[in-house]
Amino acid sequence: MYAIVDIETTGGHASANGITEVAIFIYDGQEVVQQYETLINPGVPIPRYIQSLTGITDDMVAGAPSFEEVAADIYALIHDKIFVAHNVNFDYSFLQYHLAKAGYQLRSKKLCTVRLGRKIVPGLPSYSLGNLCKSLQIAVTQRHRASGDAAATVKLFALLQRQDVNSAIAHALNAHSKEQFLPPNLPPEQVTALPGSPGVYYFHDQKGKVVYVGKAKNIRKRVNSHFTGNSASRKRQEFLRNIYSVSHEVTGTELMAHILESVEIKRLWPIYNYSQKHIEFKYGFYCFEDQQGYLRLAIEKRRKYTMPLHAFPLLVQGHQMLRGLIREFDLCPRLCFLQKGNGACSPIPDHTCRGACEKKEGPETYNLRVKAAINHMQQQQPSFVIMGNGRDAQELSCILMEKGRFYGMGYIPRDTAVTEEHAVKEWLTQYPENEYILNLIHAHAGNNVQELVKFS
């Protein structure tokens, strides 16, 4: 038995909107054996644009029952039936949410006539209820009213049953099928074809634009996990409606998937990715030449599209490192911006500053020590690769850290000897780094020493 359902609401997601009308047709596969419909007082004003769309006004629902008053009748009708609707997750999420508030837990199998329409009568220009019925010459009366749309869905479902030569309905109802949980516009064959490998996946909207990027240890399993449950939140419902396709890129390891996800989020800026979009207030060493020709080391907040000589998360770490360079290479604290004001440079009496700040030492001599300090600082940073599984048995994955900086990653033939940085680079793709990626790599390196190949 099927419960073919349509509802009208005050908005697009259940957790912040009410139901204004419900129509339920109980269909035995041959004919409608029972029909139920009622207006419902949502307890909140109906927005004017929805009143214009549905024709249901505040005055019409003023004397109607609340949902709590009819919840028992609705639950009794549908809880042991197969729940059928056009874009089923919308109607189901509303009824499940409001029934739960009234004390009833709805757990039904679902069928979506949008998804079934795409499989059984493919190639039509549109699968909205109105356009689909028009293409299939199904008469619709009282469009955008629950009873009219539910009656049209009954006729549509009956036609789909008759034309279902490949058993699409039976497949959707199969206990092992994930299809009933998928968004209505996402082709199930795309999800079925996803690999069970580590990698990154991309959800695309109707125009092909990437709207979400995710990483996974098992791409197919992770993608399917997005569609389990029936959250009534606005964000989730909007997210599901806007997924039209999924693509992916396999990586050799889960660490590479994490890195690539971070790179892609910052490159594509997808609208449904909320993490990793914050501005990173990380600090870095920068070097520039002033108007007098002196090279000056400075600590600044790292800005987008800038590449510091060395980066660090805390300002105090930078100050400690810079003071060490000043002592070891006789640099001027005033020229390094560690001493301010117009007084004498404090290290001059101890001869650790040789007078560059007072022009007693020329820029040519002073700059040699600045360059030596920079070289020393960079040489102190480790260079290593993290080796791991490749995408197949013939290759290994490789992530290169060069003097404390993330260079890039890629894949090398399994029989390649990894002894020098320059020999590895030809196999790798360069990627931008960020604090999240550096923390990932250092944490992994610390916990997986056996995967490291260090360079001197």
TrEMBL record:
Pfam families: GIY-YIG (PF01541), RNase_T (PF00929). It comes from the Bacteria. Residues 196-274 form the GIY-YIG domain. SMART domains: EXOIII (SM00479), GIYc (SM00465). NCBIfam families: dnaq. This is GIY-YIG nuclease family protein. It comes from Chitinophaga filiformis (Myxococcus filiformis).
